[in-house]
Every structure is written in structure tokens, then in C-alpha cells.
Amino acid sequence: MIKGIGQIAVPINDLEISIHFYKDKLGLPLLFNTNNMAFFDAHGVRLLLSLPENEQNQHSSSVVYFNVEDIEKSYREFKEKGIEFIDQPHLVAKMGNRETWMTFFKDPFDNLHGLMSEFETEE
Question: Domain VOC: where (predicted)?
């Protein structure tokens, strides 16, 4: 039985650039790194960035969705840090009085990621 996500792996091509992006721009704490991997804490979910072991392992990743409290504020702050978004924050689902908002960006190696925010509204 699945109990949650323990780790998400994201392929990269340059460890130094990746550490700078995820640590300095996204603000994720760097747990540790090796010569070909870096591990970050995304509020209890470990994010592994790794150089491909061989050409067969070079591929884009699954989308990683980072939860944020205020999507508009996070969007502005990340844009100020030079992160380029492919869209603007937008409503993707409304279920009763609960809304889910998202916006998407790419890391330096073209991996797609999203910011998401879910909250209750007054009806």
C-alpha cells in the first residue's frame, strides 16, 4: 500500500547549475550532494537531481508540483529571481468551495514543474 511519496527524481545535465536553481531560486534546502546527484527537502518529500548514468537514461521528468500558500505572490517572487513561467496562475478546478490554482515553469534542463495552491473559498 502506498503511503506517500518518498522521493522524486529529476534528470539534469549540469549539477552546479541545478543546485543553484533549486536552492537559490526555488529556495529548497539542500540536504547533500555527491559528484552526480543532489538531494533537496521539499517539505518532507526528497527531491533527487541526478546526472544520467548513460544515454538511455536521458529523458525529461514527470511534472513535480510544488505546493505554495499564495500562488500569485510566489509567482511574482520567482519571476523576480529569473524563473521563466510558461503561463500565469490560473484556476484548474473548483469543487464546491475548494479551488485549485496552478502555473508552470521549466528548470534549466527543460523539465516541466508546477506551482499549485489549494484553498477554501466563501460561497
Answer: 4-118
Give 52-77 pLDDT, tens digit per residue. 776 655 666 778 889 999 999 999 99
Beta strands in 1-123 (DSSP E): 7-11, 30-33, 37-42, 45-50, 64-67, 90-95, 98-106, 112-120
Fold of 7-54+61-120: 2,3-Dihydroxybiphenyl 1,2-Dioxygenase; domain 1 (3.10.180)
pLDDT digits (tens, 9 = 90+) for 90-111: 999 888 899 999 999 999 988 8
What 89-96 contacts at long range (C-beta under 8 Å, 24+ apart), as own/partner pairs, is 89/115, 89/117, 96/123
Q: Can you tell me the distance from the alpha carbon of 27 to that of 49, in angstroms, rounded to the nearest whole number? A: 15
